Amino acid sequence: MNTRQNLQNPKNWPQNVEYVRDLQFLNSKITENLSLNSQKLQYPQADMATMERLSSSTFYATGGSSASGAGKNLQKLSSRSNPLVTIKIESLEKYPSHPAYPYSGLFATKDLKPGQLITPYYGRATSAEDTDPKSDYCLRLGELTVDANIIGNEGRFVNDYRGIMQKPNAEFREFINIDHNRVEMGIFVIKAKDMPRGIRKKTEITVSYGKAFWKSRNLLRETSS
Ligand SMILES: C[S@@+](CC[C@H](N)C(=O)[O-])C[C@H]1O[C@@H](n2cnc3c(N)ncnc32)[C@H](O)[C@@H]1O
Fold it and tell me: Which domain range does residue 94 map to?
């Protein structure tokens, strides 16, 4: 079900992008594939060449996709809490040395606990074949792609950690959204010994897009991991 009812755009939201609070599906076959009603999650099968192209043009969850196991062992969460309460989109215009200058980033407005869901990642859910290779906002969800280039939510503003901090403080992870009864991708605070307090207020939230994302754009620095 789509939720495109007169949503108020968050502060600093770009005019040419539609703000949504749910995945937008190109067709109902894709909706079924993520639904938990069928008890079995099966993504549309894509050929090897398409999957290889997807691997380099999209970013993906740490540890790969687990949803193909019928949603087993995934955390069950509600995303109803308003993400604007804990995060904000910030223009990087005042940070000329930031690698994503002069665009935007996602910042914590409160302390965020280790393991906490920061925001789901929403956009247009498409099959592998329909993935736009030119989009910089594509996230893999199993064999599907969530593209937040022209339709999305706050998640589309999360930057890669490279050039910003030593390592990411957040990660993409699949979870079961009990509000929608389906598997979705979310941005979560990393749980790590050296981050016992999670992400502190006013800190930028960063993930790793994966080396393949940068390599495919010829932007991987020799030193980056
Ligand atoms: C999903 S968008 C992130 C949000 C983007 N900064 C914006 O304001 O729309 C991904 C794009 O942001 C930029 N980006 C993200 N992390 C970066 C980094 N660490 N260094 C340089 N550019 C980055 C790159 O242009 C990348 O293709």
Answer: 18-212
Condensed to tens digits (0 to 9), the pLDDT of residues 89-120 reads 999 999 999 999 999 999 999 999 999 999 99
Which atom of ligand 1 approaches the CA of 157 most closely?
Answer: 4
| 5 Cβ neighbours under 8 A, 6+ residues apart | none
- Is 17 touching ligand 1 by the criterion CB < 6 Å? no
Cβ 102 under 6 angstroms from ligand 1: no
Instruction: Read off the pLDDT of residues 64-89 as tens digits, 9 standing for 90 and up.
Output: 454 444 456 789 998 886 666 899 99
Q: For ligand 1, what atom is nearest to the CA of residue 156?
A: 1
**Residue 1 covered by a domain:** no
| Residue among 139, 145, 160 to mutate when testing ligand 1 (max atoms within 8 A of CB) | 160
* Any atom of ligand 1 within 6 Å of the Cβ of 157: yes
Q: Would you say residue 8 lies in a domain? A: no
Residue 23 lies in a domain: yes
3-state secondary structure 144-179: EEEECCCEECHHHHCEECCCCCCCCCEEEEEEEECC
Based on the structure, what is the number of domains in the chain? 1
CATH at 44: 2.170.270.10
Predicted ipTM beyond 0.95: yes
